[in-house]
Design brief:
By secondary structure, this protein is mainly beta. Helices cover 2% and strands 51% of the residues. The chain has three domains: 102 residues, GOLD domain (Jelly Rolls, Sandwich), CATH 2.60.120.680; 112 residues, Jelly Rolls; 100 residues. The relative contact order is 0.14.
């Protein structure tokens, strides 16, 4: 059977009952054939997924069409659809976190095109026409475009040596090795200057890739031992910033992060800089990223001379455990010192790609600075 339409409010495919972790709400089929459009709104305090189901089968044995929409927590998700089949229902599949609030409301009738007001966040799948002039890049930066994550990376390497060959562009010695197995992270620091009870760094804000390859964030409060192990596991670190300090207002000494299992170095906050400095980016396993800008500057820091520095960009893809060279340029500092590249089309990074840059010089004591930016787009 189908449910009767109460006015234009589709009562039996709407709900206000919060869902538990992984739970599903399935509305009852409603006959909507006398109407032109369906409009529905969903708001929840945890991420979930909407399925707008349609069928022409009066026995409801087959779902002919199912449209999928990702709901970002605390964002009002609104859609308007033209009716092309006689029967309709909504399904809501909750994510891994229990909801404390859920509102699902569906209406049938003849509805005008939706419009987005000045203060509304515009999702990637929004049906609404924006009524404000928009600069998409700026709106992504200030979180008005759910599903898009902008990221700017910056790093440098001083003291490059001719004998060492390729060296990772980050502010530390040694070279970066991409992780292939998830591990907790070990944070080492000078506990006389940083950590509990000191004037230096007291806590860290960590943006990382979790054990499933998905973007995650965590705050770690430093102890007073000089070596902490994180409560979470991951596959790489995109950025660490000092989130609280004592009177020094920065980390007084270097903070180093290694994978606990394999002991390879994964991130470094140089003394006095409060943020990681490394030309390395980890792409979320459920996203594509588009590289837009690359800036490189080289120079000689002592001893004179004009080094020639070969810079390469590598992508390591965790799914196939293979590294690819995707960029190469040689800067001869006797004639030039920098490269500035802006990609109109953009360079695509696929899920699980790790992008990082290395440099090889023919002259000791060379230095290099790299900055690049990209935008990451959720697939669903």
């Amino acid at each position: 059977m189908t449910d009767k339409i109460v006015g234009t409010y589709l009562e039996n495919t709407s709900t206000n009952t919060p869902l538990g972790s992984g739970e599903t709400y399935t509305g009852r089929w409603t006959d909507v054939r006398i109407w032109d459009t369906i409009s529905f709104a969903v708001r929840a305090d945890q991420e979930c997924t909407i399925y707008a189901d349609f069928t022409a089968d009066s026995t409801f044995a087959v779902v002919d069409s199912s449209l999928t929409y990702k709901v970002t927590a605390n964002i009002n998700e609104v859609h308007r659809l033209t009716i092309t089949r006689p029967f309709f229902r909504l399904r809501i599949v909750n994510g891994s976190s229990e909801q404390s609030y859920l509102s699902v409301s569906a209406m049938s009738g003849t509805h005008p095109q939706l419009s987005a007001p000045m203060n509304l966040n515009l999702g990637l799948d929004s049906d609404a026409i924006a009524v404000r002039p928009t600069i998409p890049e700026d709106e992504a930066v200030i979180s008005r475009r759910p599903g898009i994550t902008p990221f700017t990376k910056f790093g440098y390497r001083e003291g490059l040596t001719a004998a060492n060959g390729e060296e990772t562009i980050w502010e530390t010695t040694g070279n970066f090795t991409p992780m292939t197995t998830a591990s907790t992270f070990t944070i080492t620091y000078n506990n006389s200057t940083d950590g509990l009870g000191t004037t230096g760094a007291l806590s860290l804000f960590i943006v990382y890739i979790d054990e499933n390859g998905l973007k995650a964030e965590s705050v770690h409060t430093l102890s007073n031992t000089g070596s902490d192990v994180t409560s979470f596991s991951g596959l790489g670190i995109n950025r660490i910033a000092v989130s609280a300090t004592g009177a020094a207002q920065t980390n007084t000494n270097t903070i180093t992060v290694t994978e606990t299992t394999g002991a390879t170095k994964q991130a470094v906050i140089p003394a006095g800089q409060s943020v990681t400095q490394q030309a390395i980016y980890f792409t979320d396993s459920n996203s594509y990223a588009v590289g837009k800008m690359l800036w490189i500057h080289c120079n000689k820091i002592s001893g004179g001379g004009s080094p020639r520095i070969l810079i390469k960009g590598y992508v390591f893809n965790r799914n196939v455990a293979t590294r690819y060279e995707i960029f190469r340029v040689t800067i001869d500092t006797s004639t030039e010192s920098h490269v500035n590249l802006y990609e109109d089309v953009g360079f695509r990074l696929t899920p699980t790609d790790v992008l990082y840059f290395v440099a090889d010089t023919d002259t000791n004591n060379s230095a290099i600075n790299v900055r690049f930016s990209l935008r990451e787009y959720k697939i669903d």
